[in-house]
Amino acid sequence: MSLPNLFVSPLRCVFAALAVTVALAAHAQTGDTDFIAARDAFQTGDAARLDRVAPRLKGHLLEVYVAYWQLRLGLDDAGPERVRAFLTRADGMPLADRLRSEWLKSLGKRAQWDLFAEEYPKRVGDDVEMTCYALQWKRSKDGDSTLHDARAFWFSGQEQPDACQPLFAAMLARGSLTSADVWARVRLAHEAGNFRLAVRLIGELPAAERPDPRDLQRVDRGAAAALAKGDFRFASRAGRELALYALDRVARNDPAAAHEAWLRVRSQMPEPDRVYGNLIVAFNAGRSLSPFANQWYREADGAAQNELQRAWRVRAALRALAWKDVASAIEAMPEAQAQEPAWRYWKARALAHEGRDNDATRLYGSLATEHHFYGFLAAEAIRAAVMPVSEPIEVDSAAIAAFGERDAVKRVLALSAFDLRPEAIREWAYVVRGLDDDGLLLAAEYARRVGLYDRSINTAERTQRRHDFSLRYPTPFRESIAEAARDNGIDPALAFGLVRQESRFVAGIVSSAGATGLMQLMPATARWVAQQTGRVDYRALSLDEPELNAQLGTYYLRHVLDRLDGMPVLATAAYNAGPGRAQAWRAATELEGAIFAETIPFNETRDYVKKVLANAMFYQAQLGLPYVSLKQRLGVVEPRGMAAAASLPAPDRSEPR
Q1: Count of domains for the chain
Q2: How confident is the model at residue 14 (pLDDT cuts 50, 70, 90)?
Q3: For residue 516, what are the β-bridge partners?
Q4: Model pTM score
Q5: Catalytic residue among 129, 241, 299, 502, which?
Q6: Is 331 annotated as catalytic?
Q7: Is the domain of 493 the same as that of 574?
Q8: Are residues 103 and 251 both part of a single domain?
Q9: Considering 83, 115, 139, which residue would you say is the last residue of a domain?
């Protein structure tokens, strides 16, 4: 079975663009220029200018946003009557919940606990900062007995909000956070790469239990040299922890050097510290794709592992094709982690390698009904029907029209027109919350008709039983993208899959890193492509123009493909993280494409590659293209060699190592 092939006429994209223009124009109002001025004043923190403009926006569809901005800029000084009047006015809107949260934090910061106590029960959702303020409030009336509830926030490798610090200080002073607790968090901090936090936490220890400041400075100035010298005070916990801190610093950049130095000193460590040090080396070797990672993970048997370390235990075994280790590592996971699609699939693969075909088939069968990367791979493994079937709703024009007349929906359109995308997304989330499948599909269809393709896709993806894959995988700008793909010899399914992942078909979107348009082109990449294609005046190009963006993006994708063996799995990794990185992630021997994808070191890029290639599977059905299996798309990645990838401009959009 396959998705219905929904033919889109050449005019459909034009109609879609006109739809959003007409919809937005229908709600344009006198005062829009003033609203833009108010928006700009808020974004620059100019309260006086905002106050001058606000009276001219009485009756505007988005007047409530102007009132929110005015309150937000002076929240610490706003009286409770004014804040509560706004909360009443905006009841049921995301602005009310946002302002209440921000007001509670402002009250907590100023220790205005009576007002805090009145408003706290009305909040929608908590975060760490809010919870710590709530614990401060409870402590103000109940005493230190409430401090125990803050312990869970202590054990984090990240900096915690200022609201939590008085609680931590009180627990340290009372001794309810012990030196062992401090050292536990030091480990969490350096495992997360937060070395400054680790050093600050060491300063929380009693003076007699800290490392010598000169020793700590020596490690911070040159961890590799300090570890190689091995001059640590192993008889004390402080000395041993300092050695482990140095080991982690070195292992993040050079696991082999860390392992070599560790071999010379680890015998001086007690068994728990020794296996923990082994784990530090193995985990960093895994993320560095060291061929020794699986072997070194075996040396870490018995060490307590966190979720990330357990995941890389499996990935290290996959890179080594050590299927018994793959199976045992997944079996050692907590049930919730082991039930994630990735680990169910790789466990099935490991079982098949052991000859346990019936057990493997049962696991494949449970995955094959799920609509994602591993679902495709599992279905192909048991030769099951791969493409799911859509169950679209019958479109009721009256229902669509009534949906569009809702004030909240009108606000979404207006906010989108004013380039207030985060605000529009929040409003839309309130519009669709609590809807059943039919309601979600109606909302998704409306969003598609007015050109809010990202909202349409995200809403259609939320259905539980009834799915419409034509809404999840739409083809706006079909002619522009398909023509660009043809011109540059790109599989149209791959091009659409990449656009869907990059921009959700929002033509004018600009990322925080500066990537622009449908294919999220970085300025340097677009400039390079423009030069290669003879577009002399790069500055005159408008990257938010869909046709141009698709042409430049598919040219770059073709160029990357040509230099990375024509392999989509390498090219999509390169498109996200840069060609040099994709080249470096190859193994020294042949590697199955699925294993390459699973062991990409960057979380963002690993997820990106899987989603783009799964998207392509849906789009080949949408576009009526011949079936190409996901396994075939992934292929076999040849050993790393003298590739020309380093000469290509790197997008440099993914997480740093």
Answers
A1: 3
A2: very low
A3: 510, 521
A4: 0.91
A5: 502
A6: no
A7: yes
A8: no
A9: 139
